[in-house]
Amino acid sequence: MNDVTHPIALITGGSRGLGKNTALKLAEQGSDVILTYVHSKEAAEAVVADIEKLGRKAIALSLDAGKSASFDAFASQVREALSSHWQRTHFNHLVNNAGSGLHAPFAETTEAQFDQMVAEHLKAPFFLTQKLLPLLADGGRIVNISSGLARFSFPGSSAYASMKGGVEVLTRYMARELGERGITANVIAPGAIETDFSGGRVRDNPALNQQIASMTALGRVGLPDDIGGAIASLLQPGNRWITGQRIEASGGMLL
Known about the structure:
The structure is a single chain. The chain has helices spanning about 15-30, 40-55, 70-85, 110-130, 160-180, 200-205, 205-215, 225-235; strands at about 10, 30-35, 60, 90-95, 135-145, 185-190, 245-250. It is of the alpha/beta class. The protein has a single domain, classed as 3-Layer(aba) Sandwich (Rossmann fold). A 7-stranded parallel sheet has the order 3-2-1-4-5-6-7, sandwiched between helices. Helix 1 crosses helix 8 and helix 4 (about 110-130) runs parallel beside helix 5. The model has no long low-confidence stretch (mean pLDDT about 95).
């Protein structure tokens, strides 16, 4: 289980939704996993158990991606976990997935709501990645999560989508500046997915679900498997020459 030929992936927000699905897909490919959670340790430990059933190693660490003051301490926890669980000094793949949604009209979005979006969706991938760079192996991979909403517009998503637009620019800079270490950086932009994200609006509102399906080339709303599979595919060895790219996984939404 400590075979260094197996990569280690760190996935923020890996206890549920797209992060959970990504963790399981990567474990199926042979990766060990460090996943983070903010509220439910029980849910995170259940994902760890599922990964172990697949024959891989995993641990769950607490992290609130909206609190950048905690990132130094978190990096120390990762360093200790690598040493104690794997007898290694570096991990290989970083998936910056954690974050919450916000649905509010532009005219009614508060400064506090905006600041929360900045903290979770822009400051976190910027500064958490920065703190983890000494632990990310040369030749490693970074995948940041954007949204189809950075390309097309739906009322009520102005603050959230603005942060995702920033993440897409940030990803190109990561790719440019970390390339000298052989590290790639790409961004996956999901379309509308049936999860509990943003209160489960897409999953639980039949009218909204059908509306989105009708404007999607493949005729349905996305599922977690569609995104976890795309991220896991991007982290396979054969995709080592892809960097600085935005890859939209939306089923052809609003083409």
